[in-house]
């Protein structure tokens, strides 16, 4: 072809470099915070003696940092590198690219500030408050607009498989984020969820499961389909398998969220749907794994010497392991063993450390030297990183599987007299402390590996010359193109808008069928006449409980197992949660379930337990909260909270917002009097008084003999 028929253009490598550098930096920060959280599970004193670095507050900081900062920036680096090259055109709008970069970094900084301050919605992977949610939506839409604009002005007629996954990720994350973030603001950094109780739980885990699917999985599958063939110098094994993989995966994933809520108060039909579609997910997931591994046919000899391929092979293998384990965990008999235990944490980190972490490392090792027009500084250091990371994953995950099984066996065991063999939850905690130490050691190895990579990347950049723009040329896209006998999917790939609409329909069906009936059909959430809204003091106490991240260690959901009802009390009913905004069922028990804690102990017990947990529970791993006995609670926004909840349908009497402070004071005086009788002097407006009021309310609305459904 003559040069005169070609159009010249360039790729922007600078935006790729910035996103790649952000990935490395935020990755180290997120891993370091995770290591601090892991250390606190066997050494509570590692909270550094202040509220901002306690486990409940830094755990969501860790998850947000590694998911949205480390993995998020890696996704954007990979897309901004691969998409222009696949479409033979620069990104549509450079200003949007930089708006996306700086906007995303500012969102991460906002998360790093607000979460340690206790400004949180407490929803898993969606803890950020409403102003940051709005910023996320704006930046995400800018990213998507840039992608679609690039697609429209492409010079390559057909969309390669990687771009299918990029598009589906953009659409689905936008839908998930917007619907899960329906909340009504109280003030600048406080809001209440638009959903309550069972409905909130379903929407949250529809979001939570699919945030894993469409933020941690589908964009990385797109990156796999681009970088693995590049690194192996082989074409993708099967085009038709990639079609089946893509469409079945995005359709089935959206139904699977309820498997996080098996045996809970969620309607049984929704649990069954979640289980059925979760089991079916193994087929497309393993289809993707097989397509990836078979792409290496004829190139396996390179795996021994090429660190990039080592990382990618282990990443794809970890993806296969995690996507086999996920469907298995959705079976009710397996879920009964694993849920609320450390097994789930191990499962999540096989995916996070193995699939996301290793694919990111492999991508960076391949891409970074090319940005600087040089070779990798040290293959030996990259191989060292690989083995440190691999050992880190093993030392991290295996102890957690042992820990999870230990928890299950001890918590379910009954003695010959028919009573619980280990009635005190703390007995199980003490047994698994060695596993927590090994887990932290695994985290240290993984972090050291990442530091080695950062050094290798820095030295690689120093020895090369950064190429800010990369020239390329390609023929313009011909307008008229109607081939006869074209494969049907090839025709779809020529029509990005049509393709996007089809993908949107595919991802919308499952969520709509599960969520709409749960919200609109009242019989899905039977009400209980005895359940009343929280008093103003209890409401403030609940908000404190949320701010301190207590739900990260304690569930409020007693499942209908004999072992749980014997240990905690009557199993939880759907109607008990109608005023819970947000729901607080939890996803992991590092401490006992608290749904029936109300009235079990005197106020003074809770006081001493918060000041020094080990004084009430010898051997406890809970950090002390002495500042709660002296910190004054700012309840100036209490009337605004009442008005907001009234708008959301909570039946407080008209004008109650004007009486809320008086009601608060009256109940606080009773708690103070109870404490004084036990020899404890505390001010009525301290945080601990409100927290005690909430703890004493939990699970007291119904009794086993008098629960009545309406």
UniProtKB/TrEMBL annotation:
<feature type="transmembrane region" description="Helical">
    <location>
        <begin position="344"/>
        <end position="366"/>
    </location>
</feature>
<feature type="binding site">
    <location>
        <position position="260"/>
    </location>
    <ligand>
        <name>Cu cation</name>
    </ligand>
</feature>
<feature type="domain" description="Cytochrome c">
    <location>
        <begin position="536"/>
        <end position="699"/>
    </location>
</feature>
<keyword id="KW-0479">Metal-binding</keyword>
<feature type="transmembrane region" description="Helical">
    <location>
        <begin position="63"/>
        <end position="83"/>
    </location>
</feature>
<dbReference type="Pfam" id="PF00115">
    <property type="entry name" value="COX1"/>
</dbReference>
<dbReference type="GO" id="GO:0022904">
    <property type="term" value="P:respiratory electron transport chain"/>
</dbReference>
<feature type="domain" description="Cytochrome oxidase subunit I profile">
    <location>
        <begin position="14"/>
        <end position="499"/>
    </location>
</feature>
<keyword id="KW-0679">Respiratory chain</keyword>
<dbReference type="InterPro" id="IPR023615">
    <property type="entry name" value="Cyt_c_Oxase_su1_BS"/>
</dbReference>
<protein>
    <recommendedName>
        <fullName>cytochrome-c oxidase</fullName>
        <ecNumber>7.1.1.9</ecNumber>
    </recommendedName>
</protein>
<keyword id="KW-0408">Iron</keyword>
<keyword id="KW-0472">Membrane</keyword>
<keyword id="KW-1003">Cell membrane</keyword>
<feature type="transmembrane region" description="Helical">
    <location>
        <begin position="205"/>
        <end position="227"/>
    </location>
</feature>
<feature type="transmembrane region" description="Helical">
    <location>
        <begin position="276"/>
        <end position="296"/>
    </location>
</feature>
<feature type="transmembrane region" description="Helical">
    <location>
        <begin position="239"/>
        <end position="256"/>
    </location>
</feature>
<dbReference type="InterPro" id="IPR000883">
    <property type="entry name" value="Cyt_C_Oxase_1"/>
</dbReference>
<dbReference type="GO" id="GO:0015990">
    <property type="term" value="P:electron transport coupled proton transport"/>
</dbReference>
<feature type="transmembrane region" description="Helical">
    <location>
        <begin position="308"/>
        <end position="324"/>
    </location>
</feature>
<feature type="binding site">
    <location>
        <position position="259"/>
    </location>
    <ligand>
        <name>Cu cation</name>
    </ligand>
</feature>
<feature type="transmembrane region" description="Helical">
    <location>
        <begin position="429"/>
        <end position="455"/>
    </location>
</feature>
<dbReference type="InterPro" id="IPR004677">
    <property type="entry name" value="Cyt_c_oxidase_cbb3_su1"/>
</dbReference>
<dbReference type="Pfam" id="PF02433">
    <property type="entry name" value="FixO"/>
</dbReference>
<keyword id="KW-0813">Transport</keyword>
<feature type="transmembrane region" description="Helical">
    <location>
        <begin position="159"/>
        <end position="179"/>
    </location>
</feature>
<dbReference type="InterPro" id="IPR036909">
    <property type="entry name" value="Cyt_c-like_dom_sf"/>
</dbReference>
<keyword id="KW-0349">Heme</keyword>
<dbReference type="InterPro" id="IPR023616">
    <property type="entry name" value="Cyt_c_oxase-like_su1_dom"/>
</dbReference>
<feature type="binding site">
    <location>
        <position position="209"/>
    </location>
    <ligand>
        <name>Cu cation</name>
    </ligand>
</feature>
<dbReference type="GO" id="GO:0046872">
    <property type="term" value="F:metal ion binding"/>
</dbReference>
<keyword id="KW-1133">Transmembrane helix</keyword>
<keyword id="KW-0186">Copper</keyword>
<dbReference type="GO" id="GO:0009060">
    <property type="term" value="P:aerobic respiration"/>
</dbReference>
<keyword id="KW-0812">Transmembrane</keyword>
<feature type="transmembrane region" description="Helical">
    <location>
        <begin position="386"/>
        <end position="409"/>
    </location>
</feature>
<keyword id="KW-1278">Translocase</keyword>
<feature type="transmembrane region" description="Helical">
    <location>
        <begin position="130"/>
        <end position="152"/>
    </location>
</feature>
<feature type="transmembrane region" description="Helical">
    <location>
        <begin position="95"/>
        <end position="118"/>
    </location>
</feature>
<feature type="binding site" description="axial binding residue">
    <location>
        <position position="349"/>
    </location>
    <ligand>
        <name>heme b 1; low-spin</name>
    </ligand>
</feature>
<feature type="binding site" description="axial binding residue">
    <location>
        <position position="347"/>
    </location>
    <ligand>
        <name>heme b 2; high-spin</name>
    </ligand>
</feature>
<dbReference type="GO" id="GO:0020037">
    <property type="term" value="F:heme binding"/>
</dbReference>
């Amino acid at each position: 072809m003559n040069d005169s028929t070609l159009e010249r253009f360039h790729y922007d490598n600078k935006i790729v470099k910035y996103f790649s550098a952000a990935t490395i930096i935020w990755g180290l920060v997120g891993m370091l915070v995770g290591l601090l959280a892991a250390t606190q599970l066997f050494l509570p004193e590692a909270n550094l003696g202040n509220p901002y670095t306690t486990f409940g507050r830094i755990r969501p900081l860790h998850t947000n940092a590694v998911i949205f900062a480390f993995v998020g920036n890696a996704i954007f680096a990979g897309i901004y590198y691969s998409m222009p090259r696949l479409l033979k055109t620069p990104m549509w709008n450079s200003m949007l690219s930089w708006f996306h970069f700086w906007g995303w970094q500012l969102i991460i900084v906002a998360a790093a500030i607000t979460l340690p301050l206790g400004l949180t919605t407490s929803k898993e992977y969606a803890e950020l408050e409403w102003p940051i949610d709005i910023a996320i939506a704006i930046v995400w839409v800018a990213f998507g607009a840039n992608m679609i604009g690039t697609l429209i002005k492409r010079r390559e007629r057909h969309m390669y498989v990687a771009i299918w996954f990029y598009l589906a990720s953009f659409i689905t994350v936008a839908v998930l984020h917007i619907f899960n973030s329906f909340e009504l603001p109280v003030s600048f950094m406080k809001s209440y969820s638009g959903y309550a109780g069972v409905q909130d739980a379903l929407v949250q885990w529809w979001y939570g499961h699919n945030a894993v699917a469409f933020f941690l999985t589908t964009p990385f599958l797109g990156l796999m389909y681009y970088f693995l063939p590049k690194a192996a110098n082989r074409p993708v094994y099967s085009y038709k398998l990639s079609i089946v993989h893509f469409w079945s995966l995005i359709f089935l994933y959206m139904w699977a969220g309820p498997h996080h809520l098996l045996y809970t108060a969620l309607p049984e039909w929704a649990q069954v749907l979640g289980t059925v579609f979760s089991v079916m997910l193994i087929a497309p997931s393993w289809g993707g794994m097989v397509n990836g591994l078979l792409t290496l046919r004829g190139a396996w000899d390179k795996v021994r010497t090429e660190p990039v391929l080592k990382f990618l092979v282990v990443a794809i293998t970890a993806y296969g392991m995690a996507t086999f384990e996920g469907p298995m965990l959705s079976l009710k008999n397996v879920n009964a063993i694993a849920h609320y235990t450390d097994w789930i944490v191990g499962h999540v980190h096989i995916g996070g450390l193995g699939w996301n972490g290793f694919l990111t490392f492999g991508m960076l090792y391949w891409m970074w030297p090319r940005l600087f027009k040089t070779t990798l500084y040290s293959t030996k250091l990259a191989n060292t990183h690989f083995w440190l990371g691999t050992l880190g994953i093993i030392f991290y995950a295996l102890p957690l599987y042992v820990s999870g099984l230990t928890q299950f066996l001890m918590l379910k065991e009954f003695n010959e007299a028919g009573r619980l063999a280990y009635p005190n939850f703390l007995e199980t905690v003490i047994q698994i402390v060695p596993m927590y130490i090994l887990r932290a050691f695994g985290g240290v190895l993984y972090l050291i590996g990442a530091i080695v990579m950062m050094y290798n990347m820095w030295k690689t950049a120093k020895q090369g010359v950064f190429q800010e723009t990369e020239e390329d040329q390609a023929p313009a896209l011909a307008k008229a193109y109607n081939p006869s006998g074209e494969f049907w999917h090839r025709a779809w790939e020529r029509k990005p808008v049509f393709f996007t609409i089809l993908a949107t329909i595919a991802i919308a069906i499952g969520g709509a069928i599960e969520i709409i009936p749960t919200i609109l059909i009242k019989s899905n959430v039977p009400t209980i006449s005895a359940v009343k809204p929280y008093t103003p003091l209890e409401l403030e106490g609940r908000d404190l409980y949320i701010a301190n991240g207590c739900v990260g260690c304690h569930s409020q959901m007693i499942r209908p197992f004999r072992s749980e009802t014997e240990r905690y009390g009557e199993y939880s009913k759907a109607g008990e949660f109608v005023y819970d905004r947000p729901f607080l069922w939890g996803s992991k028990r590092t401490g006992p379930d608290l749904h029936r804690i109300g009235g079990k102990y005197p106020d003074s017990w809770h006081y001493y337990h918060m000041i020094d947990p080990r004084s009430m529970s010898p051997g406890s791993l809970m950090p002390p909260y002495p500042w709660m006995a002296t910190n004054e609670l700012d309840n100036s926004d209490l009337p605004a909270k009442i008005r907001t909840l009234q708008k959301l349908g909570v039946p407080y009497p008209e004008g109650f917002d004007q009486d809320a402070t008086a009601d608060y004071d009256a109940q606080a005086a009773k708690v103070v009097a109870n404490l004084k009788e036990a020899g404890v002097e505390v001010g009525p407006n301290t945080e601990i008084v409100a927290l005690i009021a909430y703890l004493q309310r939990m699970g007291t609305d119904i009794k086993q003999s008098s629960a009545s459904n309406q």
